[in-house]
Specification:
The chain is mostly helical. The protein contains six helices and two strands, in the order ββαααααα. It has a two-stranded antiparallel sheet. A hairpin with a 6-residue loop joins β1 and β2.
Length: about 170
Amino acid sequence: MNHLSVATGEPIVSSAPIPRSIFVYGLLGLIPFIAPPLLALRSPAHAGFLAVVEIAYAALILSFLGGARWGLEVARPVPRVGVITLAMLPTIAALALLLGPLLVPLSPARQLTGMVILLAVHLVWDATARGLPAWYPRLRGMLTLAAIFGLMVMAGMVQKAAEGVGATTV
C-alpha cells in the first residue's frame, strides 16, 4: 500500500525503512508493556499494582498516539476537522478506562482488555490512513501487537488471581 507524503502529496514507497532511532525508541517503549507481566510472574503478590502501572502506561501511549496523529494533521495546509476530532478520542477513551473504577465496578482485567481494544482500533486507523510515512503502519503493527500481548497476559494474570481470591472466600 502506498501512502502520500504530508509535505508533498507524492506517493511514498511502502518499503521505506523505519528510521533507526524511531525503531529503537519504539522498542524501548514496549518495556512497560512487557515488564509488568514478567515481574508479576516473579512476584504474584504485586500483580494488582503492576496491572495499574500497565493500565496507566497504556493510557499514556494512547494519548501519545492521538497526539502524533494530531501533529501530523495540523502540519497539513488545511487540517481536516474529522481527523483532529478522531485524534482526541484515544486520550478521552483511555482516560475514561483509567478512571472508570471510580465510577463503576470495572476490574483491572477489563481495563486492560479495554486498552487492548483501543490500541487495536487505533492500529486499524493508522494502517488504513493516508498521508502517513510509509513505514509508520509497519512500525505501529509490530509495536501494537507486542503491547497487546503484554496487556492480555497481564489481564489473564489478574483475572486468574481474582478468581482465586473469589474461590477461597466463598
